[in-house]
Amino acid sequence: MTQMIDGKAISAKIKEELKAEVGQKKEEGKEICLAVVQVGNDAASCVYVNNKKKACAFVGIKSLAYELEETVSEEELLLLIEKLNQDEKVNGILVQLPLPEHISEERVINAISPSKDVDGFHPVNVGNLCIGRKGFLPCTPAGIIQLLKRSGVEIEGKECVVIGRSNIVGKPMQMLLLRENGTVTIAHSRTKNLKEVAKRADILVVAVGKPKFITADFVKEGAVVIDVGIHRNNENKLCGDVDFDSVKEKASAITPVPGGVGPMTIAMLMNNCVETIRN
């Protein structure tokens, strides 16, 4: 029987744990404040930002919303980030991506103080991850590690394959699996014999950005399959990068879409916010 890895239930448990921790910190006189900056009103971004605000309210984190017009200049946005960097009451800064084309995402990410970069995207935090130092971890890969651990999946010594090499998921996922003593291969659109590479995996993490791209013939019998993708199919239903119906017959454990990796991203963002006052 294939194990369904329930991201909703695991993220709810993490948020409950964080709520208790935040309550304890408040009794010690420590408050947490997250500043969320959104440029324009992209529909998907609005949903994500709203979910982040709800999670903050549940955990007990104060959230400040900065909703800027799509026409805002890069200079104005950078000035706001600098103001938030200097504000001692703000623990974390999150700029919702993507940004309009006239604004450089790289410049914006680099402008956020590494000590307030709760997305874990700043080069200082990326560097800390690479060399094993403490720092903020990117939320989606960190959430996947929690999904595996809390579902009883052993990572140490396992053959792990990550399909996708983005800075947000693929590359940091590789680092975190290495940190857990997995043996990691990173594959991508230019990988030759991708099926053969994927079929070596005891743990297969798919972040390829193509709906239902991974079918049963990419998967080893008994593998654990983590699906990072989220798309809408022709019937307007949500689906992932993995062809769930065919792959679940071969996998020992699998994440559904929705309800798998997605809820974990916000839970780990909340964890990063709490991390700002743990030290």
DSSP helical segment count: 10
Poorly predicted parts: none
Question: What would you say the CATH architecture of the largest domain is?
Answer: 3-Layer(aba) Sandwich
Radius of gyration: 19 Å
The total number of structural domains is: 2
> What is the succession of H and E elements?
EHEHEHEHHHEHEHEEEEHEH
Number of strands: 11
Assembly type of the chains comes to single chain
CATH secondary-structure class of the largest domain: Alpha Beta
Please state the average pLDDT score: 96
How would you characterize the largest beta sheet? 6 strands, parallel
Note down, in words, how this protein is organized.
- The chain has 279 residues and is an alpha/beta fold.
- It folds into two domains: 90 residues, Leucine Dehydrogenase, chain A, domain 1 (Rossmann fold), CATH 3.40.50.10860; 124 residues, Rossmann fold (3-Layer(aba) Sandwich), CATH 3.40.50.
- 41% of the residues lie in helices and 16% in strands.
- The strands form three sheets. The protein has a six-stranded parallel beta sheet.
- Helix 1 runs parallel beside helix 10, helix 2 packs across helix 10 and helix 6 packs across helix 10.
- The model has no long low-confidence stretch (mean pLDDT 96).
